[in-house]
Amino acid sequence: MNHREILTRYTGNFIDELTKNGLTDAVISPGSRSTPLAITLAEHDQVKEWVIIDERSAAFFALGIAKETKRPVVLVCTSGTAAANYFPAIVEAHYSRVPLIILTADRPPELRDVGAPQAIEQLKLYGDYVKWFHEMALPEATPTMLEYVRSKAARAYYAAKEDNPGPVHLNFPFREPLLPDLSIKDIWGEKHEQSYIPTLPGKKKVDEHQLHALLHKIQHKKKGVIVCGPQVGDDFADGVIRLAEKWGLPVLADPLSQVRSGPHSKSHVIEGYDAILRNETVRERLKPDFIIRFGAMPVSKAYLFYLQQHKEALQFIVEDFNGFREPAGNSTTFVFADPTMLCKDLVKASAALKFEQSWLSQWQEMNQIAKKHLLYGMEEQITEGEAVRALLEATPEQSYIYVGNSMAIRDLDTFFMTTPKKLSIFSNRGANGIDGMVSSGLGAATGGKDITLLLGDLSFFHDMNGLMAAKQYNLNITILLINNDGGGIFSFLPQVNDKKHFEALFGTPMDINFQKAVSMYGGNYNRPETEAELKEVLYASYQHKGLSVVEVRTDRSTNTEWHRTKWQVIENELLGNEG
Asked: Menaquinone biosynthesis protein MenD middle domain: from which residue to which, for each copy (predicted)?
């Protein structure tokens, strides 16, 4: 058996095993050393390959696909700094719990540390940001080695999605020649109907003793709060709402919780809590006896202040499998269980629990006040908050919104009111970076549903080369670009008072004509001036095939004042109503 046949059978069995475990998508960046992996992936009829030239963009594109499908996605690149360009997306995948399988090609051992080109230290390149690393053996095609590659492929797929999902890394050293021989028979090895290593993963569940111990801690408490942070469970909303209705408690629902939209009841959902909790006096009047949080920490900084102000409240954080996400530093009981199953178990076991009825009413009344002022008015020149309001009205049923960080996610938090429309909200909140947002949104667009990417001008600029995927694959996406000519979020921070350095170091105005960039990638461009015009343009964009960019120009100073005025009016009425 010659080298090319050995190489082909080795990589062919590896790729085939990935598909037996459920792999459907692979994102490949061009390179020579990765040829065996790239060609066998492209040849396999169960794999959809996406070729993205820039590795940083490719990794975020894969992350977007994995978020949308909730399945591991393969990433393939050549040796050297190509692999290093994956790092930002791998960090994001680690913290936001997204399954990726990174396959990096490498020089063989004799070409390492001797000055060979494109040879860097790739062993454990991503450190603790991957759940598992393995240096693959040099290709052989003996029965034992083909079983070896199948076992590693199966383990990689399982490790990426088991418990808290995340990235895994396998490093492949290849000797030349690198071109596989697709003419040989049985490239994919023996016919296997299932994974080489079948797994039967279960869900975590608290036992009856633990359940009653939890209920015992809160049975004499009167004022509880249920908090839903970012999470992606499809059936979670129904479960947590049933629990809230059973107990008569408010649900503080983050925009990424998937609880603000859908057909379930929302009478207990408090979507305006960020505006409500900005005042210290109001926070004190809403002093809780206990807090139960599902999912990651909410976006709202006002909620963080609420936690810090009430450290004495009993706090419970529910995690699917493990993890200690509690940045406030409060004493906390961690409950490791499937959240939907836990909600059902708590409903069944808590018939005797009674909480203060006026507590829920107090939250609901404050929520109505906040919503009244947040939804009121229409400016002559569209504001950032109004742009988000328009988006939420125009976006179609069963569609996706992928939202950027900084001001974009905070405006979504403020203006995303409950709706019967079923919307899925994605964001890269693991590391909260602005990089890779265009690529992530386009990755999610590969699923074929209507998707709107909401982001600011700095995020758009930071990943403009990600637009190539829209042109290359004719992906349908609407990008709502909020352009305030710089970093708008810094205008809400103390740095804004440093008049000497603020614009250069924080405001960072670019004064770029983004229409030319959109045109370069074959996109459709519009720039509405009012909220009404924006809605019309958005409605039309969902009928347009391919890339649509809708740019809304705003002024940072005006935007800051508009937001603060809204919050002040809400605060005044909340304090006045409380007497």
From this structure: 204-403
Count how many domains the chain has: 3
Give Cα 241 distance to the centre of its chain. 23
SS3 call for 112: coil
Say if residues 191 and 135 touch (Cβ distance below 8 Å). no
Q: What tokens were used for 147? A: 């079983």
Reported pTM: 0.95
pLDDT per residue as tens digits for the range 369-410 = 999 999 988 777 788 999 999 999 999 999 999 999 989 999
Give just the sign of the alpha carbon dihedral 403, 408, 410, 413: negative
CB atoms inside a 10 Å sphere around CB 115: 7
What are the phi and psi torsion angles at 123 (to 5°)? -70, 125
Question: Within this chain, do residues 115 and 263 fall inside the same structural domain, yes or no?
Answer: no
Taking each helix axis from N to C end, the angle separating 87-96 and 55-69, rounded to the nearest 10 degrees, works out to 20
Tokens 């964009």 correspond to: 541
In which domain, by residue range, is 215 found? 208-371
Do residue 421 and residue 557 come from a single domain?
Answer: yes
Whole-number pLDDT of residue 507? 83
CATH number (domain holding residue 81): 3.40.50.970
Please, are residues 1 and 139 in contact by the beta-carbon 8 Å criterion? no
